[in-house]
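Severity: low
Component: inverse-folding endpoint
Summary: output formatting inconsistent between runs
Steps to reproduce: submit the following C-alpha cells with default settings.
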C-alpha cells in the first residue's frame, strides 16, 4: 500500500474527518527586543521626525532616516537609498522622477498589486498591460516587446512572489527602444539575480516595508537607484518639491509636484534593526520552501515554484499551478478541502486590466480621463484576452500559499505536506 492509499483511510475534514492541522499556525513576527530598544531610544530623544519641507539641511530628514538610508544603500550595494512612507508612495515617486509626459505609456504586468499600475495613472500616463511568463509569473519579455508603441516610455517589472523578473531581457529591450526600467521589488527583498540584488538592476527599484513583508516597519518603503539625478528628483517628490526647489537654485520643474511621502524616525529605527535580520529571515524562508517542495514533489497535476538558474527565490508567496485536466477536479474543490485541513491557499491573485476602472477607463472625473484626453493613444485596450496566461492562471489554475503570513517550523511544513497528500489521495483521479 503506497502513502496516498494509506492517507486515504482518514476521511477528509470537509467530509467530517479530523483536520490534519489542529492548531492554527503562529503569525509571522520579525520584531523583537532589538526593535523595542531602538524605538525607546527615539522616544526618549523626543525627535519623531526631523524633516523640513524647504531647502534646509533637514530637508533630508533626521538621524535615523539618514542612518537607515545609508545602511540600505550599503546592504543592497547601490549609490542611493531613499525611504518613503509606503511602497505605493515609492512607486508614485519613481514614475514621477522619470521624464514622463501625460499620455505616455508604461508597460506593466497585470499580475500584481494594484498600486503598480495606479502609480502610472497618478501622472496621467497610461498603463499598458503585457502578459506574464507561466513559470515565473513575471513579465514575459516577448509580450513586452509586442506592446511597445511610439508612446512607450518605460517598463515596470514586478518581482512577484519573491522572484526577480528577467532583467537581462528587459534591460536589452529597454536599451533597444530607449526606455527607462522600473523594478517593483516589493515582495522580493533579498532575492538575487546573478550576483546583484533584485531591485537594483533597474534605473529605479525598491522594496516594501509593509507589515506582512519579510522585514517591515509597519508601513514604509525604500527606493534604490544608482542615478544621481533620479535620486535628487525622488527626494524632491518625497518632500514638497515645489516649495524646496527655489532654495536649491535652477532645477527641472517637470513633475515636481511634491508630497509628504516621508518616513519617520521611529520607523527608520525599526528598519535599521530589521535590515540586520533580512539575510537570516530569507534563508529561513528558503529552507522551509525547499522542504515544502520536496514534500509535495510527485503529486499529480501540481506544478511547484520555478527558480531560473542564477536566481534565488525568497518565497513571499509559495506559488503553485494546477493541471486541471490531470487532476479530475476543480481548483475550488482542492482549495476548500485544503482549507478544511488547516491550509489556507489563495485560489486567485488578480488581473488588474479586468478591474472596473480599466474596463470603464475612468480614473479622474467622469469623462474617462486620462484615456479620453487628446494626448493619449485612443487604441489602448484592456479587453479580456490581451493577457491569456495571466487570465488563465487567475481563472482556473493558480493557487498560492502565503509563506510570509506565518512563522513556520519544519514540523508545520510536514503538516502542510500531509494535508496536501491527504487531499490528493481523496480528490485526485488516478
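Observed output (run 2 of 3):
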Amino acid at each position: 500500500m503506497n502513502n496516498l492509499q494509506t492517507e486515504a483511510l482518514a476521511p477528509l475534514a470537509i467530509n467530517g474527518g479530523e483536520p490534519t492541522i489542529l492548531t492554527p499556525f503562529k503569525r509571522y513576527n520579525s520584531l523583537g527586543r532589538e526593535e523595542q530598544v531602538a524605538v525607546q531610544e527615539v522616544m526618549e530623544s523626543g525627535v519623531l521626525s526631523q524633516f523640513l519641507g524647504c531647502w534646509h539641511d533637514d530637508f533630508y530628514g533626521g538621524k535615523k532616516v539618514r542612518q537607515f538610508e545609508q545602511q540600505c544603500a550599503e546592504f543592497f550595494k547601490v549609490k542611493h537609498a531613499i525611504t518613503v512612507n509606503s511602497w505605493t508612495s515609492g512607486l508614485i515617486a519613481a514614475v514621477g522622477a522619470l521624464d514622463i509626459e501625460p499620455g505616455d505609456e508604461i508597460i506593466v504586468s497585470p499580475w500584481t498589486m494594484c498600486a503598480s499600475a495606479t502609480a502610472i495613472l497618478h501622472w496621467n500616463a497610461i498603463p499598458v498591460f503585457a502578459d506574464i511568463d507561466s513559470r515565473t509569473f513575471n513579465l514575459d519579455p516577448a509580450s513586452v516587446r509586442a506592446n511597445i508603441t511610439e508612446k512607450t516610455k518605460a517598463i515596470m517589472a514586478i518581482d512577484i512572489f519573491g522572484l526577480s523578473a528577467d532583467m537581462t531581457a528587459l534591460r536589452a529591450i529597454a536599451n533597444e527602444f530607449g526606455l527607462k526600467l522600473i523594478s517593483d521589488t516589493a515582495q522580493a527583498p533579498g532575492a538575487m539575480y546573478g550576483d546583484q540584488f533584485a531591485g537594483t538592476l533597474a534605473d529605479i527599484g525598491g522594496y516594501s516595508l509593509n507589515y506582512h513583508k519579510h522585514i517591515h516597519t509597519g508601513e514604509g518603503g525604500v527606493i534604490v537607484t544608482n542615478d544621481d539625478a533620479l535620486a535628487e528628483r525622488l527626494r524632491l517628490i518625497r518632500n514638497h518639491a515645489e516649495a524646496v526647489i527655489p532654495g536649491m537654485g535652477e532645477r527641472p520643474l517637470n513633475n515636481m509636484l511634491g508630497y509628504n511621502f516621508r518616513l519617520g524616525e521611529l520607523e527608520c529605527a525599526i528598519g535599521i534593526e530589521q535590515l540586520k535580520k533580512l539575510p537570516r529571515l530569507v534563508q529561513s524562508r528558503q529552507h522551509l520552501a525547499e522542504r515544502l517542495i520536496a514534500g509535495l514533489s510527485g503529486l499529480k497535476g501540481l506544478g511547484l515554484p520555478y527558480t531560473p538558474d542564477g536566481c534565488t527565490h525568497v518565497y513571499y508567496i509559495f506559488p503553485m499551478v494546477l493541471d486541471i485536466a490531470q487532476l479530475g477536479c476543480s481548483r475550488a474543490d482542492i482549495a476548500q478541502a485544503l482549507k478544511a485541513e488547516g491550509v489556507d491557499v489563495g485560489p486567485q491573485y488578480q488581473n488588474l486590466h479586468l478591474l472596473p476602472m480599466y474596463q470603464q477607463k475612468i480614473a479622474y472625473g467622469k469623462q474617462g480621463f486620462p484615456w479620453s484626453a487628446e494626448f493619449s493613444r485612443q487604441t489602448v485596450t484592456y479587453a479580456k484576452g490581451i493577457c491569456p496566461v495571466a487570465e488563465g492562471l487567475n481563472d482556473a489554475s493558480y493557487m498560492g500559499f502565503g509563506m510570509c503570513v506565518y512563522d513556520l517550523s519544519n514540523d508545520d511544513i510536514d503538516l502542510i505536506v500531509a494535508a496536501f497528500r491527504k487531499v490528493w489521495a481523496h480528490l485526485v483521479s488516478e
